[in-house]
């Protein structure tokens, strides 16, 4: 039950934050005064059209997925650092006892992460530690750049939404002036579009696009950090470093209060199977 509560806590807080931000600017005069379909279509439709004209379709789609995922609880890459460190230390035990042949048999059935699989292939191919580190860093940087493209899309949408709000304002003023002195309903409609389009542009930019971009960038930066840690661990594996040396080196990537102590795991079944005298 506690786990279920934690899963829903963050999305509910996010929804409450967005609703609170909208409520601040609408509660004074009532919600009906701030609803204008034409202004909303100009801002949202214009921003989406500009995104598809400026970027590839798959990048825009991923940006929209990020907006949708704002309401979901996603696991952070930092939560798995201990497991990643333990995995690489266990592989070190295998190398100490059975060399790279044993590592190939052990890792083939347990590794599903694409970047870690690539690094293991480099180690098993006999590349030096420096070469493994260099190629892994290149792969990590390329992956980071690819995955951060939706951040650029979202920030572009955040910049264009207020601009299309101004477009809506100009359209509304044109309608207003055209109907001045003749059609009261037309004047009211044009004034509504003119006044609310700018508001919609600011809200779309500040409450949707920019928060989604910042959240995605934060998540990808944590994943990038994890990839650098894996690169260092696999480079040490290529050097056939001792498990306790790997422990102390990889602990430098963690907060001091979360350092891994290998002695706590010395009686695990895996370590009993592969451990050798250090």
Explain how this protein is built.
It is a single chain. The chain is an all-alpha fold and 278 residues long. It has two domains: 2-75 and 147-221, no CATH class; 78-131 and 237-274, no CATH class. It contains ten helices and no strands. Helix 2 (37-54) crosses helix 7 (149-178).
Characterize the largest beta sheet: strand count, sense, and whether it forms a barrel.
Answer: none
Proportion in β-strands: under 5%
Number of helices: 10
Number of strands: 0
Report the span from N to C terminus. 44 Å
What is the general shape? elongated
Sheet/helix structural class: mainly alpha
Q: On the 0-100 scale, what is the average pLDDT? A: 80
Radius of gyration: 27 Å
Annotate the secondary structure layout.
Blueprint: H1 2-26, H2 37-54, H3 57-69, H4 81-108, H5 114-124, H6 129-147, H7 149-178, H8 184-238, H9 243-251, H10 269-274
């Amino acid at each position: 039950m506690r786990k279920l509560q934690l899963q829903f806590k963050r999305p509910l807080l996010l929804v409450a934050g967005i609703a609170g931000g909208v409520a601040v600017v609408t509660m004074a005069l009532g919600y009906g005064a701030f609803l204008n379909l034409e202004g909303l279509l100009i801002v949202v439709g214009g921003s989406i059209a500009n995104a598809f004209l400026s970027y590839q379709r798959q990048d825009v789609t991923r940006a929209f997925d990020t907006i949708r995922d704002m309401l979901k609880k996603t696991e952070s890459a930092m939560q798995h650092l201990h497991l990643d460190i333990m995995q690489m230390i266990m592989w070190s035990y295998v190398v100490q006892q059975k060399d790279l042949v044993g590592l190939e048999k052990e890792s083939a059935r347990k590794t599903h992460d694409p970047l870690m699989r690539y690094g293991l292939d480099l180690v098993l191919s006999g590349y030096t530690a420096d070469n493994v580190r260099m190629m892994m860093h290149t792969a990590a940087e390329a992956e980071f750049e690819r995955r951060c493209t939706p951040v650029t899309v979202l920030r572009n949408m955040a910049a264009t939404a207020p601009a299309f709000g101004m477009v809506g304002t100009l359209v509304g003023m044109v309608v207003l002036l055209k109907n001045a002195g003749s059609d009261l309903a037309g004047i009211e409609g044009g004034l509504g579009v003119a006044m609310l389009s700018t508001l919609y542009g600011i809200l779309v930019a500040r409450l949707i696009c920019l928060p989604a971009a910042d959240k995605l960038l934060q998540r990808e930066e944590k994943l990038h950090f994890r990839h650098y840690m894996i690169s260092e661990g696999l480079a040490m594996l290529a050097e056939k470093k001792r498990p306790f040396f790997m422990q102390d080196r990889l602990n430098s990537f963690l907060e001091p209060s979360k350092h891994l102590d290998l002695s706590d795991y010395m009686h695990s079944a895996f370590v009993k199977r592969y451990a050798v005298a250090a």
